[in-house]
Design a protein that fits this description.
By secondary structure, this protein is an alpha/beta fold. The chain has helices at residues 22-36, 50-68, 74-85, 93-104, 119-139, 143-149, 160-174, 178-193, 196-207, 210-215, 224-245, 250-259, 268-285, 287-315, 320-333, 335-344, 358-368, 400-414, 428-441, 491-512, 530-539, 556-569, 574-582, 590-596, 606-610; strands spanning 11-16, 43-47, 90-92, 115-116, 317-318, 347-350, 381-386, 416-420, 422-423, 465-466.
Length: 613
């Protein structure tokens, strides 16, 4: 048997930017495994969407069919594989986990014939559970609920049901139980509070430099800041005696908070250092109250979690997130099942790995032997594909750190990292432009200390080269249109001027540059202002159509047809009849409509009655 690429090493992480041919490489890897002797049912390929899964299966089938048509003894072997490829496990991770649970879920007490609730069905179930828990808590005069209602309303956009929903969903995506989150939060608060005594010492040590500054005449004693400095010096012995005994002594912190303000001129560096330590102490002082609130919220979230599990069990159903969590639990706790899976699935190919959430990443790592209990079975081949720059699903819980950490592990010897650098989709000038743009954007990481894993450190692997050679392509593929106007103008006026400038530029492209209208696309951040651009294009005589626009039924040609249909369905509908008669389908003027609506004696009869005369 033959394939056009050699088998990849046991573990390969492929970083591939836009237009680099990652799907083609993924298909090549799949065919290479078949050529090596793997059976389709031994290869698990996971894609991000059902559409991508269908596309990959179609490509594999097409290329396998082509190999089956060639001359030679190996053609028969490819022909035998074709029927198996129709049923090969090429799917989304949710479909893969559903199949896994139907086979191995008995260890968790799952009904193999469980139903999978779509997002809307599960949302209804979740809200029903939350509302029932809150009703019972109100009926029983729950002290926990009383404490929470001091912070959150019982209904509304940011009411308690909304907060509980957000917490529950966040815990599901992170793969944490409410109780584990509760314990971890309490421990984190305890660790933070333990920093307080050290901060008090640092604050006192910093302010001890103020008397010397006064003696060295670095301070204007008559200015307000000089008076504040003197007040700090005078109060320091008593303040730090209290803080040494109680780091969050309210009166002492409040006094310092009022004094450590403004610009202290030549000794402002002392104030800034002291201010930073004081602000941290003030933030820590709020932790006990916020910790109690978090404990109450997570306690109530634990009740929601338990009730949801009970209701899903009663219905013999799972949500999309439960498919992932239950599969993860089997891989973690059932070593026999894990041994069987690793023996059964000999290769694991995962696309769009930059957009997996922690639970999805954990499932892949457990199957591939990167994490989890030691199992005697040989670990499967692992082929990961992704691009950190294209991680866009954080709002769904995706965390680019999963891909980044795996890349780092592979780079340190756990596997191999390879970059597909050629971009076959974009014009060469655009490739150069985006290389410069991305290197600038991804270097802006001043907040990296808050969440290092969420940042992409731009490297040579992220740069692309032009895979297309286009003689005659634009020398300046990126141009900026500057809209001039009065800075005091409203945002709506600026948007209108922007739309007019863009429409004029596109008309120039169509008339003078030989560009076709179908070769131009306008991308907007939001569709709220799409009508402004539609009107500007229309006035400029530029043909266009709006993809998934919100104003479809407001378009004149659509509204005219709607008026016609309404008038036909209900001839007595005067408004619909007026809309039809004044539309281009009939073309009556407003004066003619007015004349039709009144009889010869000057009485009003309406358009519907006018049809009878």
């Amino acid at each position: 048997m033959t394939g056009e690429s050699r088998p990849d090493p046991a573990r390969l992480c492929l970083t591939a930017g836009a237009g680099a041919g990652k799907t083609r490489r993924l298909v090549q890897a799949y065919l290479a495994l078949l050529a090596e002797g793997f059976l389709p049912q031994q290869i698990v390929a996971i894609t991000f969407t059902e559409k991508a899964a269908d596309e990959m299966r179609g490509r594999v089938l097409a290329q396998a069919a082509e190999l089956a048509r060639q001359d030679g003894p190996q053609a028969l072997q490819w022909q035998a594989l074709l029927a198996h490829l129709e049923w090969a496990p090429i799917s989304t991770i949710h479909s893969f986990c559903a199949a896994l649970l139907r086979e191995y879920g008995i260890s968790l007490g799952l009904d193999p014939d469980f139903a999978v609730l779509d997002a809307e069905e599960f949302e209804i179930l979740l809200q029903d559970v939350i509302n029932e828990i809150l009703r019972n808590a109100l009926k029983n005069n729950s002290a926990l609920l009383a404490r929470l209602l001091a912070h959150y309303p019982l209904a509304g956009t940011f009411g308690l049901p909304f907060v509980l929903t957000q917490i529950y969903q966040a815990l599901m995506v992170a793969g944490l139980s409410a109780e584990k989150a509760r314990q971890a939060t309490a421990q984190a608060h305890k660790d933070e509070l333990a920093r307080a005594p050290e901060l008090v010492v640092k604050l006192e040590s910093t302010l001890c430099a103020l008397p010397d500054a006064l003696q060295e005449k670095k301070v204007n004693r008559t200015a307000q800041y000089g008076k504040n400095i003197q007040a700090v010096i005078n109060a320091a012995p008593e303040v730090f005696r209290h803080l040494a005994q109680e780091p969050f002594h309210g009166a002492s912190l409040e006094l310092l908070d009022g004094l450590l303000k403004g610009n202290w001129q030549k000794v402002n560096d002392i104030r800034q250092v002291a201010r930073n330590n004081l602000d941290t102490l003030l933030a820590l002082a709020a932790l006990p109250a916020s910790g109690a609130l978090a404990d109450d919220l997570l306690g109530l979230a634990g009740q929601v979690e338990a009730e949801v599990e009970a209701e899903l069990s009663r219905r013999a159903a799972l949500s999309f997130d439960h498919l992932l969590l239950k599969s993860r639990d089997i891989l973690l706790n059932d070593t026999d099942a894990l041994h069987d899976m690793r023996h059964r699935w000999r290769a694991l190919l995962v696309d769009e790995f930059q957009d997996v959430n922690p639970v999805q990443g954990e499932i892949v790592r457990l199957l591939a032997g990167l994490d989890g209990p030691p199992v005697a079975a040989e670990v499967p081949r692992l082929f990961l594909v992704g691009d950190r720059k294209q991680s866009i699903y954080a709002f769904r819980g995706a965390q680019v750190r999963v891909f980044t950490q795996t890349m780092a592990e592979f780079g340190q010897g756990a596997g191999r990292v390879e970059a597909l650098s050629a971009n076959y989709r974009s014009a060469p000038g655009l490739v150069d432009f985006f290389n410069r743009l991305f290197s600038h954007i991804f270097s802006q990481n001043e907040h990296i200390g808050h969440d290092p894993g969420a940042y992409v450190e731009y490297s040579k692997d992220d740069e692309q080269s032009a895979g297309r050679k286009e003689p005659g392509a634009w020398e300046e593929p990126v141009q900026v249109l500057v809209t001039n106007g009065d800075s005091s103008s409203s945002l709506a006026l600026w948007r209108e001027q922007e739309a007019v400038s863009l429409a004029a530029y596109i008309r120039h492209l169509l008339e003078d540059e030989g560009i076709l209208a179908g070769q131009v696309a306008i991308l907007l951040r939001k569709l709220t202002s799409v009508q402004v651009f539609e009107q500007a294009l229309g006035r400029a005589g530029v043909p266009f159509y709006t993809v998934k626009g919100r104003g479809f039924f407001a378009c004149p040609e659509i509204s005219d047809l709607l008026w016609a249909l309404k008038a036909i369905l209900d001839p007595a509908d005067g408004a619909a009849l007026a809309g039809l008669l004044r539309s281009p389908l009939v073309g009556l003027s407003d004066e003619a409509l007015l004349a039709l609506g009144w009889d010869q004696e000057g009485g009003r009869r309406g358009l519907a009655r006018a049809q009878l005369h």
